[in-house]
Structures are given as C-alpha cells and as structure tokens.
Amino acid sequence: MTLIVDRPGPGPARPYRFPQVVRRTVAGGQVVAAHLPGQNLAVALLLLDAGAEREPTGKEGLGAVLAKALEEGTAQRDATAYALAIEALGTDLVIGLDWDSFQVSVQVPVDRLAAAVELLAEAVRTPKLDPDDVRRVRDDEATALRMDWANPGPRADAALRADLFGADNRWGRPMYGDPESVAALDVEDVTVFHSEWFIRPGTLVVAGDLERVDLDALGAAAFAGTGGGPVGRGAPIAVTPRDGRRIILVDRPGSVQSTLRLGHPAPHRAHPDHVPMTLAGTVLGGAFTSRLNHLIREVRGYTYGIRGEFGTSRRFGRFAVSSGVQTAVTAPALVEAVGEISRTQETGVTEDELAVARSWRAGQLSVELQSPRAIAAALTTLVVHDLPDDYHARLRESLLAADVAQVSAAAAEHLHPGSLTLVVEGDAALIRDELAAAGLGEIV
Amino acid sequence: MPDSGYPWPIETTRLDNGLRVVVSEDRTAPAVAVNLWYDVGSRHEPQGQTGFAHLFEHLMFEGSVNVAKTEHMKLVQGAGGSLNATTNPDRTNYFETMPAEHLELALWLEADRMGGLVPALTQETLDNQRDVVKNERRQRYENVPYGDAWLRLLPLLYPPGHPYHHATIGSMEDLNAADLATFQAFHATYYAPNNAVLTVVGDASATEVFALADKYFGAIPARPEIPPAPDGSVVPGGRPAVETVTADVPAPRVFVAHRTHPFGSAGYHVVTVLATVLGSGRGSRLYQRLADGERLAQPDLVGAYGVDLAHAPAPLIVTATARPGVSAERLSAGLSDVVDELATVPVTAAELDRAKALLSTAWWRQLSTVDGRADLLGRYATQFGDPARLADQLPALLAVTSEQIAEVAAEVLTAADRVTLTYLPEETS
After folding, report:
1. What residues does the Peptidase M16 N-terminal domain cover (chain A) (predicted)?
2. Which of B33, B6, B393, B398 has its CA nearest to residue A40?
3. Is A21-223 a CATH 3.30.830.10 domain?
4. For the segment B318-333, what is each residue's pLDDT rounded down to a tens digit?
C-alpha cells in the first residue's frame, strides 16, 4: 500500500484571537468596531432595537415593509437616484431582521465606507415614505410572501410557532409575517413604526481595517438627527411544554417529500445552561455527524439532511428539528427522529460524541470568523445580548470545558420528547392514515 | 485599492505523479483552507449514467482504506473544521477549512480517498447514498415551484450528445441503475493525482505544504491516459427554442437564456459585466424597466447571471416573475425588449461604473476568506493551467467598455438564437 496508514496528530496549537474590539460613544450613539488589518473590504451595520418582537400583534411584517420602503426615495433624492448612488459605491442596503433587532448594512471596499454609511443613514433616518410608494411596496411584499409560501416550509414553520407560543402572541406568529398580515398593513402603521423605532440612535457596528476608517465620522453620519434613548425590554417569557405529543398535518397535495418541523419551547439566550444546551443540541442534531443526521440520512437514506438545535432569542427559545423526507417514509422517519430525541433526553451523550461537538463548536470560532461580514455578525451578537468584548474567548473556553455530566444534564432538563409538536407538511391523502397509526400522538 | 486582483503570494509545484500543488500563505488568522479540484464533472458522463459524478462525490465521504465509514466527517468536525464538496458540469471540488494545526490531518484524509477509495466502497454505501441523492433531487428540484427550470434549460441550450445537455443531478432512472462496478471504474479513471489540483491557503508556508503534499500524495500512482470529455466547444446556433410549462406555481415566470462565451475568455468577461448592468440591483436595467418602470415584474425576482462554465459557450440566464394581473406574454415581451436593447441602446458611463463597483465588492468578498481564495486558485490552475491568472480577472472586468458590451450583445444575444422557458400557473377552480 502506497498510502500513509497512520493518522497524523495535530501540530502545535495556534491560538485564535478575536479581533481587537473598539467601543465609542459618538453623537449620542454607540460605535462598536473590530480591527481587521489589511482587509480591503469593510462592513458597517446599523443595529436598531426594531426587531419583529417590537411589531404589534396583528401587524406582522411591518419591519419588512418598512425596510423596502426605505429605498423608495429619501428627503434628498428619488428611488432611482438613491439606487444609482449606493450601487455606484459597490453595495446595496442589506437588511437583516430577527426577533431581537433590525439590521441594515453596507459592504464596500474600505475607502468607500464613509460614503456608504452616509447613504445608509439617509435612507434609515430620512426616508420619503410617500403614501403611494408605501402601499405599492406593501402589495409587492405581500405578493413576495405569497410566492415564498408556495414553497414547502413557511406554512409548517408557522404552524409549529403558533402551536408552541400561541397565535395571540407576536412571538407565536411568523417572524416576517404572512401574506395576509402584510396585505392588511396601512401607511400609518409604517410611518408610526418608523418614527417610534428608526430615529433612535442605535449602534453602529464596523468591521474593517480601522487604520483606514474614521469611526467618529462614521458615527456622526449614522447618528445625525437622532433622538430618544433605549427602551426597556420585557422579561424572559416562560412557556410550559404541553402535556403529550401532537401532530399537525399541513396538506400539500402532490408533494414528493414531507416537510418536517418538530419542536417544543426551550429557555431564552441568557439562560445559564446556554453552552451545555448548545452542545447537547449539536450532538443530537446540530452537525453533519449528529445522531439525527447519522440515522435518518446516513443509515436510512430517508432524507438529504436533517437538523435539530436549540434556537434562542432574548426573551424566548425553542428546540426545533427540520427536514424533508421522501413521502413514503414519513411515518418511520418521524418515529426514528422522536426515538433519537428521547434517547438523548434519557441517556445523555457519550464522551466520543461530545469530544467532536465541543471541538467543532470551538474550532468554528476561528474557521468561520474570517470575513468582515462574519465579524460584524459576531459584534452584533455582543451588542444584542449585552456580552463583553472577550466573549468569544470565554465561549471557546467554556465549550472546551463542558463535560459529559453537564451536557447530559442539559439534555435531560431541556429536551421534552413527550411534549413535541410534530408538524408534517405533505400530501395528506397519502400519509394521514400511516401517521395516525404510528402512535406518535393525536393528529389535531 | 490594489492594482492586482490577488495581492497575496502564490507558489506552485508539481509532484512527480503529476499532482499540482498551489499555496498562498496568509498568516492573518490561524486557519487553513485545503481544496482539491478534480477535473471531472457531469460533462464526462456517458448517456445512461447521468448524475454519476455527483453521486460519486457523496461516496467520497463514506470512508477509504485507512478511514472507517463515518470517520471522515467526524475527524474533520472533531478537529474544528468545516467541510463540503460540490459537483458541476465541469469539475468536482472537495474542501475543508481547519484550525491551522490540523492541516496534516486534512491532507492525510484527502490523500487516503484519492489513493484508497475503491477497496472501501460497498454496495450498502452505494445504496444508501443513492437514496440520499434521490432525496436531494426531490428537495431541490422536484418539490419546489420552478425548481426544475435548470433541468429544462440545459437541453434547450445544448443538443443531445453535448456534454452540457444534461444536468449534474442526473435522472432518477439513471441513478436507480447505478452499479458498484461503474463507480469503482469511475474512481480509477478520474481520481488520479495528475487529474487534480491541491490548493492550500492560509496559515502555512509553501515549503511546509510542498513537503506534506509529497509525504501524503507522493506515492499515489499517476494514471497514464485520462479520457477527455466530449468536445463541446462548438454549439450549433441559429435556432430559437421555446418551451412552456404549466405547473403548480404561484405566478408566471419567464427565463430567457443564451449561449455566450466560455468562462475565462475575453468574451465572458464582457458577459459578466453585461449581466450586472442588466440584472443586478435596483439600478439595473431589468429592475428599472420591468419592476419599477412598467411594473410588469415582481421587484425581488428579476435577475441576470452568467453560469461560470469553461468548456463550451456558457449560459446567460435572464429571469423575471409576473406581478399579479400581468400575463406571461406581456412579461416575456418586456424581458426580450430589455435584452435586445443591450445591442442597440449604449450602456452609459454611470451604468458601467455601477456594474464595476458591484463586481469589485463581490470580488473582494469572495477573497475575504481563505476558502474563497483556495477555490478560485484551484479553478484557475485546473481550467487555465496557471493559478496566477486569477489576479488578472478583476482588472479584466474593470477594463470592459460600453462598445464591447454592445458588440457581444449583438453577437450572442440575438432573438434568432434565444431560449425562452415560460412557467404558467395551473388553472384553479
């Protein structure tokens, strides 16, 4: 045999250091920046406390419609002139919206960053919000959602969320809204949401070569004309897992796969068990090597992939599994997935599995945090969750220090296989009887 | 901004067995990207074996002589690394990004599956991954609205027998017929060191990588004759193709496609800028004319892009989706008008500057990670014989003129040579 038989061990460890973090108060707002020496590209991201959770119940999709409306012209120029000005710098406005924040960012060669931030601020702080434009953008967004909801997934996601958290709560409804909620928005909803949340200063996150960036000037541009302080947030929402499993069947006639969404409520982001929960989730479903992916994909061949993990935001969290499986194996795939969740809850993780999970999560901190975009996202995590500058270094240490007992205890405590809601979006006529017979729970 | 499109060192060598090795050192972060380009893709597949190159890619993760089944992923993830592989008509690439101290592990794993896959290949593994790939086909192409557009466009663009006629995912019928011996032969034929490029970018020196490459890959024998794919460089044109599909889709959607120039050619540089003028961003012609102006198209769903294929005239795909109340005919006519005008209405300096600025950002974004750099270096080494040609790509794009765009549009975007694929929603009761 010509190949080297023995697997090589690692070379000397080369410690990863998160870039130096710079924090400044400028013009009433906060600037949080990371220095990336020699990097040609830079990202600036304005972080506003205007996440989906700030949308009133019944007004889901408000943030997404406002995001589109920001680009329909400003106090200084019309929509076309704005598009040409910002794209001539090599960027568009990139919008990110989650439960906890609204993010709008630009990504440009570093020498164009100042001009790009000025244009970003122009759209966010002084949009024209002409009523005709807002109505048109709203109609377009409703159509875009209707198109998106023709794909498998969004309806199943909505059914799971409503069942876990209750559709009478904002966090029990889809993060981006649905076609009906968006279509029902009016112009005033949008202008009021803007005046309430988009002229508070917020935080400007910058990732780039700070020797070629004037942070004070960027902050001054981003926070010009802003006012109002931070607004308090509610306490974490405790949701009690329900008694007994249930199945929700979402009919999609002709579907050649069943889209699976399994879940139950779980703790919020700041819970002290965050790290062991993350690792338990990684062993169960968070990595290619996970128990779920191994069994359902690599042994059974039921799917192209299956993932499961704890998802957490500031006020609430959930454990959720997602996959698409061939229609004919819907029931056995569900039985086996529930089986792996139960096994993990009952007997915990093994040292072999945990060794992979903790090294992988820790290693990803150096492997995935390379681009300005990735660094900006990491800084955003610091701001949204009030974490210290050395958070990533501490996270690495706590990941590597977590032992089998801690992670197994987190699995025992935070997995609730008996309380799962099993959402199945597929061809109901083909799968209903088999699901009813599988003994997994009542179809509701 | 630097004058070169690649302001990092590039060093190359070739082992005695023909394996080309490319190294680009960058000590910024303690991470290293390892990337293998094998010069085999779905263009090599004979009739009746569509989808085999891609299914084979799956088998490469299932163990080799010194790596047990399931161990490959476990070793890479257990070292903190990210990994994946992709197959397209031209080539198959395998890549992992590792904390730098695990470089040697990555090279050992790649060498083991290059030199020792066949003895570990079993019927059970093949059957399992065949099922996985069939589910990949269902998930990505069959179970989503418009998901089969690419499967339909390719045979309209390229005639039977052309290496790009069929899609990389293959047909269910061929996947069902795949037998073990074919895959053993596939590996023996194409997975040879002289048919591959190994690229390492990041926290490692060229000297170190060259020595490790020789240690792990050096004894894998070269294969003397590797059969080439069928020649696809000339595609007979002059025949418009039209296909209309009625399906379970939420709105009419139109694709206009043309054969242009091969990736890497001067003509394709022009097509890249042209596609950006035409379809990228709110300042693009498609957005301004169809989404904003006449309001025929859904704003988020207009676009134009070249598909980076190097062994035949590469496709340019232009697409738009109708706003409620707009017919497919009206949208299709509008789309054709905007494409036709590329030859007749000169691209302005502002349009050109906008496109070049967007392309510059996209360029530096791709180069902002070690894995992005490794894949591009491997591409240029594989397809053009010289990774350093990568540095010329950005300056070449920035040198494209308005006149060149009009010339190329007049040459390759004629209505007589156009493929039009239209989706219509089923009648609902």
Report:
1. 31-162
2. B6
3. yes
4. 999 999 999 999 999 9
Structural domains of chain B, ranges and CATH numbers in brackets: 11-217 (3.30.830.10), 241-425 (3.30.830.10)
- Among candidates B34, B15, B420, B406, which has minimal Cα distance to B245? B420
Q: How confident is the model at residue B428 (pLDDT cuts 50, 70, 90)?
A: low
Q: How is residue B347 annotated by DSSP?
A: P
What's chain B's average pLDDT? 96
A146 neighbourhood in chain B, CB within 8 Å: 250
C-alpha to C-alpha distance for A292 and A298, rounded to whole angstroms: 9
**Residue B108, min C-alpha distance to chain A (Å):** 7
Q: Which uninterrupted H or E stretch holds B16?
A: none
The CATH homologous superfamily of the domain defined by A246-443: Metalloenzyme, LuxS/M16 peptidase-like (3.30.830.10)
- pLDDT, one tens digit per residue, over B253-264 is 999 999 999 999
At B8 the three-state DSSP class reads coil
Look at B101 and A84 and tell me if their CB atoms are within 8 Å: no
Per the CB < 8 Å rule, is A87 touching B251? no
Q: How many helices (H) and strands (E) does chain A have?
A: 16, 12
CB-nearest partner of B30 from A14, A84, A140 = A14
**Out of A33-37, A402-406, B61-65, B234-238, least confident range:** B234-238
Nearest-angstrom CA–CA distance, B134 and A297: 12
Cα B355 to Cα B43, B158, B269, B328, B351: the distances in Å are 31, 29, 12, 28, 6
